[in-house]
Amino acid sequence: MQEFLTFTIIGLSTGAIYAVVASGLVVTYTTSGIFNLAHGATGMLAAFTYWQLRFDWNLPAPLALFITLFVLCPLFGVITERFVMRGLQGTSEVVRLSVTVALFAFMIGIANWIWPSDSSREAFLKFYEGNKVSIFGINISWHKIITFGCAILVAIVLRLLLFRTRMGVAMRAVVDDRALTELNGGRPDRVAMFAWALSAMLAGLAGILLAGEQQLNIEPLVLLVINAYAAAIIGRLKNLPMTFAGAAVLGLLDAYYLEFSDKSWFPHSIMGFGISGMRASIPTIVLFVALLARPQSRLRAGVVRIREQNKVPAWSTSVLGAVSLITIVVAISGMLTRSNTLLLLNGFTFAIVALSLVPLTGYAGQMSLAPLTFAGLGAIAMSKLPGDGNLLTLIAVVVIVALIGALVALPAIRLSGIYLALSTAAFAVLVTKLVFNQKQTFMSGNIAVPVLDIPFIEINSPRGRLILASVAFSLLGLGVVAIRRSRLGRRLIALKDSPAAAATLGMSLTRTKLAAFAISAGIAACAGALAGDKVSPQQYDFTQSLPIVLLAVVGGVGTVGGALFGGLMLGGNSVLASVVPTLKNVTKILPGTIGVTLGRNPSGAANQIADAYRSLANRWKLLAFAATGGIVIWILDAQYVISHWAFFISSVFWLLAVTSNLVGIMQAPRTRQIIASTYLAVGVIVAISIDWDNAVDSTGKRLIALVLLITLFGVGAQRLTEHAPRVHRASPDVIGLTTAFTDEELDHAERELGVVI
């Protein structure tokens, strides 16, 4: 009995930490509508900050706690809300969730940069380390007592805040009806800022308490929030008492499993499959059950008005893009070293995984956080099925994983928005903990995926696999374009725009969602099946999926080009870290830094880049000129007239600085045409003629020189071709608010309104 009470106390202590974390999630979601996936990362960063102040700089514990929890954490929350989250109004759930993933990646990068792994680091001591209190014969550490007290204090403070203060009334009003609150003189933005500051404080408190139990390890601290998801969902993301009760249940289940798993009668395998990962999966299983127990999401009338815009892709543009991509890869693949070829191949693998999100998330609006999980299942199937990697085996892999995707989606199909995203996250964690760690799947830690066997074609070399990856991406991309232009594509778009209208017109939402999930899983399976090398389960971990989802949305999850942009950016980040060691720390935070800017451009970078080149459409002479220039540069490199670095720099310069300015030059007055053309010609000569291998002594400096060249000549030529200077005008929304109406503006308004005086 005493042992049972001991584990009960351990479970309640763990549950207390979950409760503090989950309450912060509930506070931010109910006031801003954003589910903060970076909540655990905030607690991790606060724990490292407290360690720095308390144990490395030897500040007194009360002072270190005050600075961390009452100064830095609220400041971080305020900055996050004001400069990141506030710009997400009018964006989809996908974009809002992706921005929190960006924050997640950014904070992990910051922690790895400032506090790299160091075994000699001074230990993170518990509060009153070594001191215990005996209660009913059970020794309880002061740290656990403080944890209990903090959870109770948080519950009391939140109750008083929400029901006894003016700010609490405003917070509850924002939850009920944000627009009505604003019409009655409320300040929803100020309320959201306060909520994010409070949430950061709660995350910081939980992080410090957990670090005392588990020491300073980034992964368990950031994944703390995943365990707290279940408690927040049990409370329906709005009921704090139910959230605390759910947290207690989670803690007790974990502790009781730890107690009974050591008993002789407890099974350690089921039908030959080990269950060593069951304890870590308990919060995820509870989360999945809680999600399935939710009432079905109601269909809301009307069309969702969001700022993302993606046009229907044209066949001519799509085929030209596919052919161009394959041609470019074939041309440059012979110039790359083996290591760089493998890194670029990795980028194409990520691009195929990102492409799987285009029909599911970009077209149908259904969020998935498990794309790499299906890629991992594809790799396992490719290595286990007979055929030694022939085309029939690949087809069988795609069909099998697509069916798995449909089966997994079936119980979660009644969910939508954040609840659907969390159900896919739960599936990814369960597969990681219970499937990928089995000897039947990944053997001794890795498996060999056979190279695709195509008759009469040899692709065993890294270059051959790279070309195969580009061909596979191009064919799959054309398939996705075909889906978008088909009847199914129109059904997917209708599902995203207005599920209620689609259902009213007789469309089967269930079948449409299942088709989207099956197609997405099948495409992701191709990425794993085409690996053609040894792979490990860590490559398909749930946390590895998050950067892919993020960069797919950054690139433009509604377009094939956006998937390519996101995948190559993720692969290029690895290339940059390897060729420029001095920028290794910068690459840790680069994806997250880019992702937090999504509020300014929710349609993605690919759409923004396409706008710059869209004016070249149907201008065949200019397109031919641009293509000829690229071919000439390639011939110069192939004939060893210029170095490989000169080829790279001049090619990028030609694409970004010259091609994007061709239409502007043709439309400019004659004098400006001559000046701008001469100016760009000088830039091309500089890029080609310099021996970059010897003139510049490091890769980092060469890349900086490339950026300067594009900025100096590309942007300069754009300014030369403009007919009139740029005039920055104030927004018309503030006329009459920040400045008085002029007489001319008043007369114009009266004429438009038909006012007669």
TrEMBL record:
It is found in: Cell membrane. The chain crosses the membrane at residues 6-27, 34-51, 63-85, 97-115, 135-162, 191-212, 218-235, 270-293, 314-336, 342-360, 391-410, 417-436, 466-483, 514-532, 544-568, 620-636, 642-662, 674-690, 702-721. One of its GO terms (molecular function) is branched-chain amino acid transmembrane transporter activity. One of its GO terms (biological process) is amino acid transport. InterPro entries: ABC_transp_permease, BCAA_transport_permease, LivM-like. The keyword Phosphoprotein does not apply. Coiled coil: none annotated. Its main location: membrane. Keywords: Amino-acid transport, Cell membrane, Membrane, Transmembrane, Transmembrane helix, Transport. Signal peptide: none annotated. It is a multi-pass membrane protein. One of its GO terms (cellular component) is plasma membrane. Belongs to the binding-protein-dependent transport system permease family. LivHM subfamily. This is Unannotated protein. The lineage of its organism: unclassified sequences, metagenomes, ecological metagenomes.
